[in-house]
Specification:
Largest sheet: 10 strands, mixed
Mean pLDDT: 95
Structural class: alpha/beta
Helix content: 25-40%
CATH architecture of the largest domain: 3-Layer(aba) Sandwich
CATH class of the largest domain: Alpha Beta
Number of strands: 19
Distance between the termini: 25 Å
Bound molecules: adenosine-5'-diphosphate
Radius of gyration: 23 Å
Oligomer: single chain
């Protein structure tokens, strides 16, 4: 079964969040599950410079056909090409979408610095659809698996494109975060090479604008999202981001497949970022990891202090204003707070102010730091993830593996992966963290109190830590579910004129 995996970021070459981690780990796991996987990526500088030469016998660059695709007059003169390449580490075959005028830009890959994001990501969708229709004479995928709004036009172009030859690939569209939708002004529509009727409520029009997310949801043969709870939540208005009606209408093709963890990257016993590795049998070493973190981030070295960690994009979604609101109380209770994150300026500044007010007890590093992210997982007692909504969330899974007990809002993937320390769960030995229901400082406070209470009982705390560290969210499991989904699609693939 041949699978084209289409995404915009991939660890370790380019990562802005969880999507990068998923794309780094899922394609190799799909290969291990028996799929013949290739990855299609835009030629951002980090991708272009990070991939190796292709190992394939037929490795000629492929020119994209322009006719009936996105209006290439909006593109620079140099024709976009697909260059075969190899991904470092996994050694998977890849196609890099080479269009330097669109992708060879420094900085955040999604920043719309030149107002042409619509065309940039339409071209990615077009490239995926061309491959799905057999552009590469030596390798036509059975499945085109697309990820998030950047790839939303791929399923639609796949359906719309009329190409001679074998039937098109089937499409799977995975929502990693419904809140980011790829909305563009209606003036983009005529440049997309799509028939006029698609600019309507049953097409890709969204309140008078063009929505790439909606295109993916309308046209994909199957829709998945990254946890079963989030799959349910996005079908209701509160978390449906205006697309819950469409998702309900397509509910027979929507499912949730929980993300996994790449334990080759995220395991405290073999983590290159740690000076003092440890594991469930050597938990006493976690105290050393705590001291390492305190020194590194600028907290007072106090082995007795309960350290709360945050590794997160600093956005409204993540609910971190709740933590900022209780920061003084945490310090008064003798705890410390270590924050690593970047994002919304007011939130960054609020944490920086809190650190200035409590030097040595609250430490904040604004920015992106992969190594420190590992250090916080290892050194923290509790990992805070109070997200307002959370499609899956990976950091709480890393927290579990590192014995930094996650304290989370009961929502999305957080609800699916953390077992609350209720008396019953403690008794049954299944508890792995702290879960709160009411999204408010009051709700958070109640969970914090339970964390402090449990921490005062070292034996009980260690028991929960051991249970947490013993959890496995293996990519093998997720890859098996995706492979089964792909298999279910192959006989149903049809050609729609
Ligand atoms: P999201 O994709 O919504 O950002 P996830 O929990 O799914 O959230 O994934 C976040 C990923 O990004 C994790 O690997 C986390 O460690 C990483 N991360 C987030 N912020 C930072 C940061 N400031 N520095 C380093 N890694 C970060």
């Amino acid at each position: 079964m041949k699978v084209l995996y289409v995404c915009t970021e991939i660890f370790p070459l380019l990562k802005t969040g969880g999507l990068g981690d998923v794309s780094g780990a899922l394609p190799p796991a799909l290969r291990d599950a028996g799929c013949d996987v290739r990855v299609l990526l835009p030629g951002f500088p980090a991708i272009r410079d990070g991939v190796g030469p292709s190992h394939l016998k037929q490795a000629e660059p492929l020119a994209l056909p322009a006719r009936r695709g996105p209006e290439l007059s909006a593109l620079p003169a140099q024709a976009p090409m697909l260059r075969p390449a190899t991904l470092p580490g996994s050694e998977l075959a890849a196609y890099v979408l080479d269009a330097p005028a669109l992708f060879n830009r420094p900085g955040n890959p999604y920043a719309d610095t030149q107002g042409d994001n619509g065309i940039r990501f339409a071209l990615l969708g077009w490239a995926a659809a061309c491959l799905g229709h057999g552009l590469d004479a030596y390798w036509q995928p059975d499945i085109v698996h697309c990820h998030d709004w950047h790839t939303g036009l791929a399923p639609l172009y796949l359906r719309q494109m009329a190409m001679p030859g074998p039937p098109r690939a089937a499409s799977v569209f995975t929502i990693h975060n419904l809140a980011y939708q790829g909305i563009f002004p209606r003036t983009l529509f005529p440049q997309l090479g799509l028939p006029d009727y698609l600019f309507g409520i049953d097409g890709i029009e969204f309140w008078g604008q063009v929505s790439f997310m909606k295109a993916g949801l309308q046209a994909a043969d199957r829709i998945t999202t990254v946890s079963p709870a989030y799959a349910r939540e996005i079908m209701a208005a509160e978390q449906g981001c205006g697309l819950d009606g469409l998702l309900r209408a397509r509910s027979n093709v929507v499912s949730g497949i929980l993300n996994g963890v790449d334990y080759a990257v995220w395991s405290p016993s073999r983590d290159d970022a740690l000076v003092h590795p440890y594991d469930v049998e050597s938990l006493e070493e976690k105290v050393t990891a705590k001291a390492d973190l305190q020194r590194k981030i600028g907290l007072q070295e106090r082995p007795d202090a309960m350290v709360f960690g945050v590794v997160s994009r600093l956005t409204e979604q993540k609910g971190l204003h709740l933590i900022e609101a209780v920061a003084d109380e945490l310090v008064r209770a003798g705890a410390q707070l270590a924050v690593l994150g970047a994002g919304d300026a007011p939130l960054e500044q609020a944490f920086v102010r809190a650190a200035a007010k409590h030097p040595g007890q609250i430490a904040v590093q604004v920015g992106y730091n992969e190594c420190l992210a590992h250090g916080i997982m290892a050194g923290a007692d509790v990992l805070l993830v109070p997200s307002r909504f959370e499609p899956c969330g990976l950091t709480q899974l890393y927290g579990l593996r590192y014995g930094a007990l996650p304290l989370v809002h009961r929502v999305g993937g957080l609800a699916d992966t953390v077992v609350d320390t209720t008396p019953e769960n403690l008794e049954a030995g299944t508890a792995t963290g702290f879960v709160f229901d009411e999204f408010s400082t009051q709700g958070l406070r109640a969970a914090l109190r339970r964390a402090f209470d449990l921490h005062a009982l070292p034996g009980a705390w260690k028991k929960v830590q051991r249970t947490a560290m013993g959890q496995r969210f293996d990519w093998r499991e997720a890859a098996g579910q995706y492979a089964a989904l792909y298999r279910s699609l192959i006989p149903q693939t049809d050609r729609i004129a």
